[in-house]
Specification:
heterodimer, A: 394 residues, mainly alpha, abc type-2 transporter like fold, 4-stranded mixed sheet, 16 helices, B: 242 residues, alpha/beta, Rossmann fold, 6-stranded mixed sheet, 4-stranded antiparallel sheet
């Protein structure tokens, strides 16, 4: 590397890494966000489930002291509370369900007829929905028993109800498959999002920030040509962006390993091969450099730090759209066209790689296109950096 | 040492500097005087090769202003007024070292030069502290050291005392005299006639990008039969003399 470029690169990295805000926003948050979020959300979901499982508050109106009512009462996890207005109790959140069993429920059942019961629940409450599924599963069990005894009375084998039995099998263990689905959905987003957003702070500081501080003019009067200055800055931005992306992905993997977390509940296997990691790394570096160059061009154009931040806001939104393009798509079914569309190609190929698919045609096309876009972005940044009306825009 | 002929700068259809010529010899201080927007900073930026020259020619320490920009940047030191433009998260030494290295100095030479400047500018107490919490005067010293660390032969001062208090202004003026005594060619732009009279050997008065008068201060006073340079300036740019 040219000596001047390395002097600029080292200075910029030192300058950025001494900034507490940079450390917090660029390194700590990406590293800790997903594990903390996953843990909190997982904890909250599990706690709701545990809460309902241990203490299902129900208002029951069993008009005929039915067998169903007795079965429900036998369940020690269900707590029956008394309210004259059962629906009102559910609405007010005092009960999770209001179950109404008609007076002649047992009579209808014993005669081989059908009897309806009413369950009122709050479909905006997670706990009420969990309670509903708990109670309906008890009712389903009772239904099966009733059907079974009716068929037995008629000397019919209960197997008549299940003419087909399915034995499910797959090449991947359940916990591995779960991890792979999560990675396939999230890693493309992380690569794109953090390649774009991880470079914003650095690009803003090294472009518009340099103008605002008044350090750009002294810099331009040194023997270091503008192309060396630009190259040094671009390398520094890319390195920072790459570090942010790596931190975010480490954060994701930690999140998957956190017991009780939302992502994989700690049991998910992260089955990424070294080859996948290396190829995702290469693509991330090129994508980061692309965004870095583009953002530096925009930042140099801006008159001030604040203006640059405004101009750079869309850079944190656009990559999400590209990532959503493949989010719910199977890694084996991505159309060839996707590998030729900016950003979508990155999302597509990263999704393939996280699924262990090594289609070197797709990888080659994506890297080639990414290099083309990156060169175009660097040319734009260089143009901006050489343009007097941009550099001295005030 | 520094010579420009018919120096012209156009921004699209607007002519910011129009055929400006002057010479600055070794150990001489040339004052560029003009109103805001007269073209002083544009001239300075062209001399510092930050802006490309639209027309005209120039030589700085024997190097062509248009064709040998990199060589010229190694020959000039520049000090700006207002915000001094330092990196707050770097120490004073790191700031100076950065610019020394960007001006092509080896680490050894740069260290030696910095040590000399620490003594000259009395920066011992804060040289290894981060610039962010420095007073204006301390920052000014670092900026001075940065501008001269690579031992330039030509110094450009673009309204360097803007916003400074008396002692910081005096520090700059002493520094300018020191540069003069070392035989550097100096271009000094300012609004302040008092400062110009105190420092400059010759002045060039710029108005709307053109040179409207030049000469030594005593010659101008004699020519216009007026002891007040401010009166002479106002008269030359066509303003009120009341």
């Amino acid at each position: 590397m040219n000596k001047l470029v390395s002097v600029i690169l080292l200075k910029e990295l030192k300058d950025m890494l001494r900034d507490k805000k940079t450390i917090i926003v660029s390194l700590l948050i990406p590293l800790l966000l997903m594990p903390i979020l996953s843990f909190i959300m997982g904890k909250s979901m599990n706690s709701a489930q545990d809460d309902v499982n241990l203490n299902t508050k129900i208002v029951m109106l069993d008009k005929g002291n039915s067998s169903l009512g007795k079965i429900l009462k036998k369940d020690k996890s269900i707590k029956f509370i008394s309210y004259t207005d059962g629906q009102g109790a559910v609405k007010d959140g005092k009960a999770l369900l209001f179950v109404e069993i008609p007076k002649d429920f047992d009579t209808f059942i014993s005669k081989g007829n059908n009897s309806g019961i009413k369950i009122f629940y709050d479909n905006t409450s997670q706990k009420s929905s969990i309670a509903l599924s708990k109670v309906t599963s008890i009712i389903d069990e009772l239904s099966k028993e009733i059907v079974g005894s009716r068929l037995t009375k008629r000397n019919i084998d209960i197997k008549i109800l299940t003419p087909i039995t399915v034995a499910k099998a797959s090449f991947q263990k359940e916990e591995n498959a779960e991890g792979q689905i999560i990675l396939g959905m999230l890693i493309p987003i992380f690569v794109l999002l953090y390649s774009a957003t991880g470079t914003i702070a650095a690009a803003t500081d090294l472009g518009a920030g340099e103008k605002e501080r008044g350090t750009l003019e002294p810099l331009l009067t040194t023997k270091a040509g503008r192309h060396y200055i630009l190259t040094g800055k671009l390398f520094a931005i890319t390195i920072m962006g790459f570090i942010v992306s790596v931190c975010s992905m480490i954060g994701l993997i930690i999140a998957m390993k956190v017991p009780g977390g939302m992502l994989g509940n700690g049991s998910s296997s992260v089955g990424l091969s070294y080859k996948s990691i290396a190829l995702i790394g290469v693509i991330t570096i090129i994508t980061t450099m692309f965004f870095g160059a583009l953002e530096l061009a925009v930042s140099i154009y801006a008159r001030s730090f604040k203006e640059a931040q405004t101009y750079l806001t869309p850079f944190s939104i656009v990559p999400i759209f590209a990532a959503y393009g493949t989010m719910y798509m199977g890694a084996k079914n991505i159309p060839f066209l996707y590998f030729n569309i900016p950003l979508l190609s990155v999302s597509s190929v990263v999704k393939e790689l996280t699924s262990g698919i090594y289609n070197y045609g797709h990888i080659g096309i994506t890297i080639a296109w990414s290099i083309v876009y990156t060169i175009a972005a660097i040319i734009l940044a260089r143009h901006m950096f050489n343009k007097e009306s941009v550099i001295f825009r005030s | 040492m520094l010579e420009v002929k018919n120096l012209t700068k156009k921004f699209k259809s607007f002519t910011a500097v129009d055929g400006v010529s002057f010479v600055v010899n070794k150990g001489e201080i040339l004052g560029l005087i003009g109103e805001n927007g007269a073209g002083k900073t544009t001239i300075m930026r062209m001399l510092a090769t930050m802006l490309k020259v639209t027309a005209g020619e120039g030589k700085i320490s024997g190097h062509d202003l248009v064709k040998e920009t990199e060589c010229i940047r190694g020959e000039i030191g520049i000090l700006f007024g207002g915000e001094v433009g330092l990196y707050d998260r770097l120490t004073a030494r790191e700031n100076i070292m950065y610019f020394a290295q960007l001006n092509g100095m080896s680490e050894g030479d740069a260290k030696k030069s910095i040590e000399e400047l620490i003594g000259e500018l009395e920066m011992n107490e804060f040289i290894d502290k981060r610039v962010g919490k420095f007073s204006r005067g301390m920052k000014q010293k670092v900026a001075i050291a940065r501008s001269i660390v690579h031992k330039p032969s030509v110094m450009l001062f673009d309204e360097p005392s803007t916003g400074l208090d008396v002692s910081a202004t005096r520090l700059i003026q002493d520094f300018i005299f020191k540069c003069k005594s070392e035989g550097k060619a100096i271009v000094f732009s300012s609004h302040s006639m008092v400062e110009v009279e105190r420092l400059c050997d010759r002045v060039v008065i710029i108005h709307k990008g053109k040179v409207v008068e030049h000469g030594t201060i005593s010659a101008l006073k004699a020519k216009y039969n007026n002891e007040d340079m401010e009166d002479i300036f106002v008269k030359l740019i066509g303003g009120s003399n009341e």
